[in-house]
Write a structure and sequence with these properties.
217 residues; alpha/beta; 8 strands
Amino acid sequence: MKFFADTAEIADIRDLNDAGLLDGVTTNPSLIAKSGRNFMEVTKEICDLVEGPVSAEVVALDHATMMKEAEVLRKIADNVCIKVPLTIDGLKTCRALTNDGTMVNVTLCFSANQALLAAKAGATFVSPFVGRHDDNGFDGMDLIRDIRLIYDNYDFRTEILVASVRHVVHVLESARIGADVMTAPPKVIKSLANHVLTDKGIEGFMADWAKTGQSIL
């Protein structure tokens, strides 16, 4: 399963990338606003830092304007992936961009039927939001299971990009189901390394090493 960072914070992206834990980055208007930086500038910097896909989202709602915005965004770098909402206009834009060889991430997916439409439109990625699904009384991971089954039934090439990941259990379940990608805040990705027994083991090793009075350096 590929790991994408859901952030526009350059320091966090660089840290994860240096650790070999990053396959791509997803951004959205909210994350860019949170960074307090210029949209085009920060997107270009992320694309220069990361080799994998970097999702940059259009903000228009109609197909014609989405295409104009996409034309600007995809000139930022070769690894830009245009992010469009799961609407009819968004799907039209997805098909047009895909036919032109551009990566497309269809976002704000909340049902398996919507995911089916994204695959039919030729999306590179579809982004079902599991955390927001959970927030509204549904099981977000059931949605991922349904999409995985449907995509496997028909051998769709669209990759399932699990989004709105809130905690490590979402990551674990996504991997167990067979999701292609998950995108999460850097804090969640880093927390995957945490375990109380690892901490206790390090504490014990360090205590025993101190007793030897030795130094490696």
